[in-house]
Amino acid sequence: MSIEKWRSEIDEVDRHIIELLGRRAEAAVSIGKEKQKTGQAFYDAGRQKMILDRLCEKNDTSFPNTGLRHVFAEIMSACLNLESRQTIAFFGAEASFTHMAAKEMFGTSAECIPYKSIDDVFMACEKGWTDYGVVPIENSTGGVVHDTLDRFVDTNLIICSEITLSIHHVLMANCSLEKIQRVYSHPQPFLQCRAWLKQNLPGVELHETDSTSEGAKLATRSNNAAAIGSELAAKLYDLDILVRGIEDMKDNITRFWIIGRSPSAPTGDDKTSIMFSVKDRPGALYDLLKPFHEEKINLTKIESRPTKRRPWEYVFFVDLLGHLDDPTISRVVHDVEEHCEFMKIMGSYPRNDRPH
Fold this sequence. Notes:
Blueprint: H1 3-38, H2 45-58, H3 65-83, E1 87-91, H4 97-106, E2 111-115, H5 118-126, E3 132-139, E4 143-144, H6 146-151, E5 158-166, E6 170-173, E7 182-185, H7 187-192, H8 194-200, E8 205-208, H9 212-221, E9 225-229, H10 231-236, E10 240-244, E11 253-260, E12 270-278, H11 284-294, E13 299-306, E14 314-321, H12 327-337, E15 340-350
Parallel strand pairs: 1-2, 1-3, 7-8, 7-9
Antiparallel strand pairs: 3-4, 3-11, 5-11, 6-9, 6-10, 12-14, 12-15, 13-14
Helix pairs in contact: 1-3, 2-3, 11-12
């Protein structure tokens, strides 16, 4: 068959796709009206993950699953916003890595609103100014983002989902490498690029900013200045990319939490995050963690933070595999709670620790 005939075949297929998308959009609008009547949450990260997983499992065509996920993620994003316009608060500015995580999770149809601090993102969600928020929680090189953990001590928000991104930093500037006198960026990229900076820009002033995008913006306004951030930020602020891939670890990964008020449905591949403080006695932490071991519940992370109330008093943050709807998980968590000074369930949400 000639190229022209194959193109006619594609045109015909595209017409059918548009018709089916229209039917899907009409169904989404009807679902949105029903959700408004019942007060049901419009977005459910668990359901979205199950749909995408199921589509890929059933895909026996030559269309790749990676592309299928991206296509349907955008379709679902557009239809969700027909049900109800989704507003997403994110930490940083446009073209920051958190902004990229928000777009990856909610698609291009959602309205993403920048906030200067992690505390501001939490406040926007708490006040109902936005539906959800996106904040960084940890990086494979720089470690845990303490501002995010600390904020969970006194919020009613929960973790609705997580997303993990491969992070690749570029050095962007308005001058040559030899003329750089100062570098702007968020503290995390400075940690992630510490060895490269020491070797290639020794003695150069490092100025911390609220976000990588803010650093790029400052670099455009200063002479002999550079910034560390994403390629997207360099394009947005019209800076030259001097060096790509300056992160010290090439497997540089950042995990982000999606925070909100609506719990996520169990998917069969979930995480639960909890926080608790222990009574001040020998072996208290061991006794609390022992039931998880006995029930073979996998703890993927344990982190401690000062309570800021009394010296040497700590709050422990734990990630475990499983959903609180699982009877075993629920029983163990509630048994452990009886022996804590206090415990808080931060959320059960779809596991998504494979880097995008």
